[in-house]
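Chain particulars:
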Amino acid sequence: MFQYVELANQLISQVNSVLIGKEDKVTYAVTTLLAGGHLLIEDVPGVGKTTLANAIAKSVDCSFGRIQFTPDTLPSDVTGLSVYNMKTGAFEFSKGAIMHHIVLADEINRTSPKTQASLLEAMEERQVTVDGKIYPLEAPFMVIATQNPIDFMGTYHLPEAQLDRFLMKISIGYPTPEDELRMALLYHNNHRLPELKPIMTREQVDAMQEEVKKVRIHKDVLAFIIDVTKVTREDENFILGASPRATLAVIKAASATAYLKGRDYVIPDDVLEVIYPVLCHRFVLSMEAKINKVSPEKILRGLLQKVTIPILRDFS
């Protein structure tokens, strides 16, 4: 049916070999790549955020850039800047770290809002503007950002406009005792994790993303997605519900999920599988919801019970 589905699942298997016991998180990360989106990983230090990002980058034969965000990181460090060449007497563009296919934005919420904002144009429009000149970014282009929880010292809130540009937000979480024991035994016995090598080319990633776009979605499934985003905009627990960009993000993620399962059409289960990591980081809670310490996930779970899930024999 599709030419590269098996290769996409090989990518998941390879990344799973270095991130022990986090198969669902790895699947979400690869789903984001196939959907042509960006991934935000939020968790406490030391649970494998950077390991996951690096594993994906090493498994794909694309150019890779890393930005270690600090309070003194400048927007020009991200986008690049024009430098005067004394030999030629002209300004020349010096590329920033964003000018790569896969970009790891490490600890993105440790830098200033001004520097965070330098990513906005690149993430949405796949281009950067420096000194009035536009520089397109080559496809595929993916930002994998990591951040510590916002209540940690030295962190800044990401603006809503930037959060909305991430297709998914995931949290890796602590390993189970069994998985942590496996990891500890490997370390104690001086066994190294597998050395990752690229298993796919940039052209193959492009081809996969094009195949995902060909996944069909029934109008009743589309109506279901729209109903979900609509109720989030009307719920009193949210100051800000899901945007139209969020609706499109659910469609892309559900299509990539169906693709990984070898289907050329989306079913409601595909939507339900991605709805939480796609939507929950986009919500802004009301003051009452914050006081009551109600999580976006819990609110969304209740809202889904109000929406009719389509039941059809054939969604194709």
Q: What stands out?
A: The mean pLDDT is 89. The first strand starts at residue 39 and ends at 42.
